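Renewal narrative, Specific Aim 1. Our central claim is that a sequence can be written position by position from structural information alone. The example that follows is taken directly from our test logs and has not been curated for this report. It begins with the structure tokens describing the chain, in the order in which they were read.
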């Protein structure tokens, strides 16, 4: 398995834990030694691992927790660090998300999650039909 594939698998496990409302799985995915941060939509930044895990426990145990699907993942590798950019589809709309992973004890673990509302999409640049 390539590093990109392994990071995508870890990203999938993050969203699988969210969808399954599994706080133990979510806890297992987060880095233990590296600094961590989490910005849930509309929240201020959490930078303490225990506070981050407590936030997920609250979200995952809520009967109002949103259903979520991740799509359009892009992986950028920087040695033992990887960034996944993706979109999260929720009942109320679509969020842009970034998930930063680090290699810790041979496993890709999440060190940063940030999701926020998409208010404007950039139009894709089209190639000219002919060159002049």
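The sequence written for that structure reads:
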């Amino acid at each position: 398995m390539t590093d990109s594939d392994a990071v995508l698998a870890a990203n999938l496990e993050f969203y699988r834990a969210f969808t399954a409302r599994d706080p133990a799985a979510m806890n297992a995915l987060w880095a233990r030694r590296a600094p961590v941060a989490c910005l849930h939509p509309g929240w201020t930044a959490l930078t303490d691992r225990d506070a981050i895990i407590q936030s997920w426990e609250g979200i995952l145990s809520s009967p109002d927790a949103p259903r979520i699907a991740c799509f359009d993942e892009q992986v950028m590798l920087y040695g033992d660090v990887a960034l996944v950019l993706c979109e999260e589809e929720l009942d109320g709309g679509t969020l842009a998300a970034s998930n930063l992973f680090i290699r810790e004890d041979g496993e890709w673990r999440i060190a940063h999650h940030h999701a926020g509302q998409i208010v404007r999409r950039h139009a894709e640049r089209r190639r000219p039909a002919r060159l002049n």
